[in-house]
Amino acid sequence: MWQHFQFNQKSLHLSCHTNEQLNEFDVLLRSEWDRAVTEGLFTFQITDDVQRRILDEDNLHYMIELNPDRYGKRRTPFPFEHVNTPFDSLKFNFNKIKDAEILFSLDNEQDHDKYLVIINNSPIRPYHVLLVPHRGLEQAQVLNIDCIIFGLEFVASSAHPYILAGFNSLCGYASVNHLHLHGIYIPHRFYLQTIKCSVFDTKSNCYLLDAFDTQAFAFQCANVDDFQRTAESVYKVTNYLSLQNIAHNVVIAKGDSFSSPSTDVLRIFIWFRQSIINGQMFDRCNFACIELAGFMPLQYENVFKDLDEVALREDLNSIALPEERQQQVKDDVVKLLDC
């Protein structure tokens, strides 16, 4: 049986401005990951000795990294045409993994099967994990409140300032139709942690990331008492997007409060974007949750050498919904949040 880590409501780590550090949670995650490496459970050799650079022409400081193995050796993603696709037990799902791929469970009880942290066997970088809630329920890749809270607890449990949890819907680069989040340590502070956002809806304390044509709704949590309420608000948005067959990505990260930058919070972003049908990949930028957060693994060396922030912004803007559709989404979300 795998180990269990008990979530401590009185010990939250919300700052993105501390030095890189590890606590008991991080040590457990990394030691179990290293154990999985020695047991040969990954599809390729993982190293942090890679080419990486920061696009610093503007104020985003987007990180890009040359990572051909992630593209060439990962499990072939299943093709999806709809955001809502029923779970299929005959296809790969997390009930088919080996017990050795489970690193530990996380919750505030002693439930060893509720919130599982498992390896991503084709990782973007070292210590890239997957968060799987209630895997035995065979839930499709549609975000729910329980899964959102799992992501909040995962990020808040770590002492590392640049950890994040992320969700990809089907047609938003999810490759497995079994409910899960990504968990990953980013090498440096990323732009989502400090970027300013516009007030969107005062009643629900919702903000809007509108620095690009592809926009995102944003919420924040300052303490554990906010987790349930915020998760419910996030779910209102993601459930609407799912029902409307709109692809979306979610990121949970430590950062500055939108209204009071000196206050540490968890930031939650929800992008609504064009669908990627059947897992189509582009030669340059492919935007899933981690890439939208500010960390872009690239397949080709020439792209890595030539990419600049102007081109990256062009690619990000290109996945925006048509302007009229985007406005309709925002109008509908305001009504949902205010009811």
TrEMBL record:
It comes from Adineta ricciae. This is GDP-D-glucose phosphorylase 1. PANTHER family: GDP-D-GLUCOSE PHOSPHORYLASE 1. It comes from the Eukaryota. GO terms for biological process: glucose metabolic process. GO terms for molecular function: GDP-D-glucose phosphorylase activity; guanyl-nucleotide exchange factor activity; hydrolase activity; nucleotide binding. Its EC number is 2.7.7.78. Specific and highly efficient GDP-D-glucose phosphorylase regulating the levels of GDP-D-glucose in cells. Keywords: Cytoplasm, Guanine-nucleotide releasing factor, Hydrolase, Nucleotide-binding, Nucleotidyltransferase, Transferase. Residues 199-338 form the GDPGP1-like C-terminal domain.
